[in-house]
Amino acid sequence: MTKILMVATNVDQIGDQKTGLWLSEFVEPATEWTHEGFEVTGASIKGGRIPIDPNSYSNELPRVWDGVMEPIHDTIKLSEVNPEEYDAIFFCGGHGAMVDFPNSPEIEALLDHFKQNNKLIGAICHGPAAFIGNKDVNDISFIKGIKITGYSNEEEQATGLADAMPFLLEDELKEAGASYESGGVEADHVVVDQNFITGQNPQSTHRIAEVFKEHLSS
Q: Which partner for 91 in 4, 54, 127, 154 could form a disulfide, CB atoms 3.0-4.6 Å apart?
C-alpha cells in the first residue's frame, strides 16, 4: 500500500494572531488520497493534536471530511518516524508552518531521505517553509536549482499578516536557490520539478492532490 506522511505545524499563535494548520490543505489531499486507497499518516515536530487556524473553517465542515481529520487529532512526532516506511512526504500549510518548519533538524533528516531516494516531496502554500534553512549533508539547500511555488509576497501582503511573519516565503525560497514561480494572486498553480511537487495557495490544494496522486500511481 502507498503510504504518505503529511506534516503539519504545531504553532497555534504568532504574536496576537491565532494560527495553525490551514485545514483544507490537510483534509482535501487526505480525502483524495484515502479514496484512492493510499494510507495517510499525520505527523508534526512535537506530535499530538494539531492546532487549526480559525480562519480556515466555518462551524459547518463539509460532510465529505468526516473521518478524514482523525490523523491530525494525534500526530506522530517526526523524530519517531521511520522514513523507510513512506513513499512520499507532504508539508501542509498555514501560517504556523512559517515558525516551526524552517531550520528543523527533524524535517532536515526526512528531506534528506526523501530526496536521496527520489521519493515524492510535496508542499502547499506556507508548507514550503520546510525547505528554508534545511540543507543536505553537503550543506546545500534541498531546493537549489529547483522550480518551486508557494505563498507569494503579494498574497501575504493581502492577508495583512506580512509584518507579523518571520520572513516572506517567496523571498526566502529564492534566497535558498529555488527558481520561484507564481501564477498570480489566488491562482490555482502547481509546479512539478524532479521529485518536488508544490502548490501556491489554498486554491491549488485540489490540483496538487490530483497531481500527487497521478505521480504515485504511475
A: 127
Tens-place pLDDT, residues 176-201: 999 999 999 999 999 999 999 999 99
Long-range CB contacts (< 8 A, 24+ apart) of 54-58? Answer: 54/18, 54/20, 56/20, 56/21, 56/22, 56/23, 56/24, 56/94, 56/202, 57/23, 57/24
pLDDT bin (cut points 50, 70, 90) of residue 60 is low
Asked whether 147 and 177 are in contact (CB, 8 A), the reply is no
- Structural domain span for residue 183: 3-217
Q: How many domains does the chain have?
A: 1
Give pLDDT tens digits for 206-215. 999 999 999 9
- Residue 57: its pLDDT value, please? 81
Is 127 within 8 Å of 92 (Cβ atoms)? Answer: yes
